Amino acid sequence: MRITAAEWKAFGQLREISRSERTEKLVNQLVQLWESSVRATHHFLTEQDIQNIRPIVKEVLQTIGILVVAFEDDTPVGFMCMQDQKIEALFLAPAYRGKGIGKRLIRLAIYTYKVLYVDVNEQNVKAESIYRHLGFETFRRDAVDDQGNPFPILRMKLNYPL
């Protein structure tokens, strides 16, 4: 998989945010972005599920090892969290889905951060399809998520060496 010159240029809109740069304002913006994204894509979640997950998302955004945010001007339009060669979260504002930002984030994860793994909700068919297109394969399916909720998870691994 090659990254085009246009994609490399677009990487300028992506920025790694250190823990010290993760202001309350930015974290709150990203939590709101997460919620709007989940409401648009995770139709299997109930309102109570979203309310229960929100504080976990906020904590992850504050503490995760690597946080990359996609900006348009100064407005966050997407983000990706990574740790231990794994994409832990990737969410886009609904208006920015289908514009290639998710693919650019994933390619950045693969080539810059040497990511090898990602977990995807089985019901999120679009996300699974994008990861497959970019070289990931399912190596395991778990009937519940990491919090024990009945949301099946596909454990995926990059299927070619870097």
TrEMBL record:
Residues 1-161 form the N-acetyltransferase domain. It comes from the Bacteria. The keyword Acyltransferase applies. Keywords: Acyltransferase, Transferase. Signal peptide: none annotated. One of its GO terms (molecular function) is acyltransferase activity, transferring groups other than amino-acyl groups. InterPro entries: Acyl_CoA_acyltransferase, GNAT_dom. The keyword Cytoplasm does not apply. This is Acetyltransferase.
